[in-house]
C-alpha cells in the first residue's frame, strides 16, 4: 500500500494488491464453507460416492461462493480513477447497425443530437438487409435533425457484416457502436470519451453502462431491470477494476478505430462483441468500463425472446472461449476473469440438473443436494447487491436520475432469476455444440 503524496491521510492500494487480497478473502470463505459442509458431504457421498458428491457440491456451493466472495471484496476496494479530462472535444463516429428499425431509428438519432458533447459527431447508419423502410427513415431523420449522417446498406445478414461495412468509412480516431433501440443519456458521450482520454495508451476500448428503458412494461422487464442495474453492472465494474472488461458490448461502447482494424474488425460470431473484446485482451490491451456513461435499451418482454437473447449470449461466450483460450491471455487478471467463464458451463449444468431437482427434494425434507451450507451463498449475494446498489445510487445521483421502485422485480431477481438463466444458458451451450443456425435478433 502506498501513501498518496497529494493527501497524506489517504492510501493508494494497487490493482495487484486488491487482486491478491480478494483472492485471500475468497479462499478463506471457501475453506470456511468446506469445513461446515463436511457432514453434508459425508451423507451425500453415501448415496452417489465421494467424487460425485464433491463434484456436485463444488458446483453449487464452493466455486460460486469463491467467486462471490472475490467479487464482494473487490467491489469494496473499488475506486474509479478520476477523469483527467472532463470535457473532451475529440471527434467521434457513431455506428448504428439496423435490421428492421424503421420505427425506432428516429428516436435513437434524436438522443444522439441531444448530447452535451462539444466534439464533432458523425453518424453512420448501416441498414442490414431490412425488409422495411429503415434506410429511408434514417435519411429523413438525419435531414430533420440536422445530423452529419451517412446511410449505407449491407445485404449480407449479420451484425458483424454491418459493422465491418462501416469500419472502412470511419475517419475519426474514436468510434462508438450503438444499438438502434438504445437511447443515450445526455452526458453519455462526454463521460465515455473522457474515460478514454484519461486512460493509459494501452486502453483500446471503454464499455458504457447499459440499463433498462422499458422496465415498466411487464414482469419480465422488471426483473431484467435489476439484472442490468446490479448483476451486469457489478460484473463489469469488477472486470473494469482489473483492467479487463470482458465485453465491450455492441449496444454502447467506445473503441479506438485502429485497434478494431488491427484485429480485423468484428468476427463472424454470434457474440461478435465478446470475441472482439477478447481479441483485444489477447494482444495485451486493456478494456475499461465507465459507469457514468449510461444508455437505456429495450429488453425482451416475453419469455421466448428472453430465452433467445440469453442463449445467444451463452453461445457467444463459448465462441470466445474456443477462439481465445483463457491461459493464452497475457494478463493474470484476464486469465482469471476469462477462466471463470470457462467454469460457467459446468456451474450451469450442475445448477440445472442437480441444484434445481435438489431444491424440490428439500421441500420434502430430503437434503441430499440442497443443504444448509448452500445458504451461505445468500449473504454474499445480498452483500454484493447492496454494495452495487450504493455505487449505482451515487451514479444516478450524479446523472440526476431516479431509481425506480421495483421491489417485486428485485426479490424475483435475487431468489428466482438464476433458476431461469442457468437452464437457458445450458440451452445455448447445446445450440453451440450442435452448431444450430445463428440469428441476430
From TrEMBL:
<feature type="transmembrane region" description="Helical">
    <location>
        <begin position="21"/>
        <end position="41"/>
    </location>
</feature>
<comment type="similarity">
    <text>Belongs to the glycosyltransferase 2 family.</text>
</comment>
<feature type="transmembrane region" description="Helical">
    <location>
        <begin position="410"/>
        <end position="430"/>
    </location>
</feature>
<protein>
    <submittedName>
        <fullName>Glycosyltransferase</fullName>
        <ecNumber>2.4.-.-</ecNumber>
    </submittedName>
</protein>
<keyword id="KW-0812">Transmembrane</keyword>
<dbReference type="Pfam" id="PF13641">
    <property type="entry name" value="Glyco_tranf_2_3"/>
</dbReference>
<feature type="transmembrane region" description="Helical">
    <location>
        <begin position="366"/>
        <end position="389"/>
    </location>
</feature>
<keyword id="KW-1133">Transmembrane helix</keyword>
<feature type="transmembrane region" description="Helical">
    <location>
        <begin position="47"/>
        <end position="77"/>
    </location>
</feature>
<feature type="transmembrane region" description="Helical">
    <location>
        <begin position="342"/>
        <end position="360"/>
    </location>
</feature>
<keyword id="KW-0472">Membrane</keyword>
<keyword id="KW-0808">Transferase</keyword>
<dbReference type="InterPro" id="IPR029044">
    <property type="entry name" value="Nucleotide-diphossugar_trans"/>
</dbReference>
<dbReference type="GO" id="GO:0016757">
    <property type="term" value="F:glycosyltransferase activity"/>
</dbReference>
<keyword id="KW-0328">Glycosyltransferase</keyword>
Amino acid at each position: 500500500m502506498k501513501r498518496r503524496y497529494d493527501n497524506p491521510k489517504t492510501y493508494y492500494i494497487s490493482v495487484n494488491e486488491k487482486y491478491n487480497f480478494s483472492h485471500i478473502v475468497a479462499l478463506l470463505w471457501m475453506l470456511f464453507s468446506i469445513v461446515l459442509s463436511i457432514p453434508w458431504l459425508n451423507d451425500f457421498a453415501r448415496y452417489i460416492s465421494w467424487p460425485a458428491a464433491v463434484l456436485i457440491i463444488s458446483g453449487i456451493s464452493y466455486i460460486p461462493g469463491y467467486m462471490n466472495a472475490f467479487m464482494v471484496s473487490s467491489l469494496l476496494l473499488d475506486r474509479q480513477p478520476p477523469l483527467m479530462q472532463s470535457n473532451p472535444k475529440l471527434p467521434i463516429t457513431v455506428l448504428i447497425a439496423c435490421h428492421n428499425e424503421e420505427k425506432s431509428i428516429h428516436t435513437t438519432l434524436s438522443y444522439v443530437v441531444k448530447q452535451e458533447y462539444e466534439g464533432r459527431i458523425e453518424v453512420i447508419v448501416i441498414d442490414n438487409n431490412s425488409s422495411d423502410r429503415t434506410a429511408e427513415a434514417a435519411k429523413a431523420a438525419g435531414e430533420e435533425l440536422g445530423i452529419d449522417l451517412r446511410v449505407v446498406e449491407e445485404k449480407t445478414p449479420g451484425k458483424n457484416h454491418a459493422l465491418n461495412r462501416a469500419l472502412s468509412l470511419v475517419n475519426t480516431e474514436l468510434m462508438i457502436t450503438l444499438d438502434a433501440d438504445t437511447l443515450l443519456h445526455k452526458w453519455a458521450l462526454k463521460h465515455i470519451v473522457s474515460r478514454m482520454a484519461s486512460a493509459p495508451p494501452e486502453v483500446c476500448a471503454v464499455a458504457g453502462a447499459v440499463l433498462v428503458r422499458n422496465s415498466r412494461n411487464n414482469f419480465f422487464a422488471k426483473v431484467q431491470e435489476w439484472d442490468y442495474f446490479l448483476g451486469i453492472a457489478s460484473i463489469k465494474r469488477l472486470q473494469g477494476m482489473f483492467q479487463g472488461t470482458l465485453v465491450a458490448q455492441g449496444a454502447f461502447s467506445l473503441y479506438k478505430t485502429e485497434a478494431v482494424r488491427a484485429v480485423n474488425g468484428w468476427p463472424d460470431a454470434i457474440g461478435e462483441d465478446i470475441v472482439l473484446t477478447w481479441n483485444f485482451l489477447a494482444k495485451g490491451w486493456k478494456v475499461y468500463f465507465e459507469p457514468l456513461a449510461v444508455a437505456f435499451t429495450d429488453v425482451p418482454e416475453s419469455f421466448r425472446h428472453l430465452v433467445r437473447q440469453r442463449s445467444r449470449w451463452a453461445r457467444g461466450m463459448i465462441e470466445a472461449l474456443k477462439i481465445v483460450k483463457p491461459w493464452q491471455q497475457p494478463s493474470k487478471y484476464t486469465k482469471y476473469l476469462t477462466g471463470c467463464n470457462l467454469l460457467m458451463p459446468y456451474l450451469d449444468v450442475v445448477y440445472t440438473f442437480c441444484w434445481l431437482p435438489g431444491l424440490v427434494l428439500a421441500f420434502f425434507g430430503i437434503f441430499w443436494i440442497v443443504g444448509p451450507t448452500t445458504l451461505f451463498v445468500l449473504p454474499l449475494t445480498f452483500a454484493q447487491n447492496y454494495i452495487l446498489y450504493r455505487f449505482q445510487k451515487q451514479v444516478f445521483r450524479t446523472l440526476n436520475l431516479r431509481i425506480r421502485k421495483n421491489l417485486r422485480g428485485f426479490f424475483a431477481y435475487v431468489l428466482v432469476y438464476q433458476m431461469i438463466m442457468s437452464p437457458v444458458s445450458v440451452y445455448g451451450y447445446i445450440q453451440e455444440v450442435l452448431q444450430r443456425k445463428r440469428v441476430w435478433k
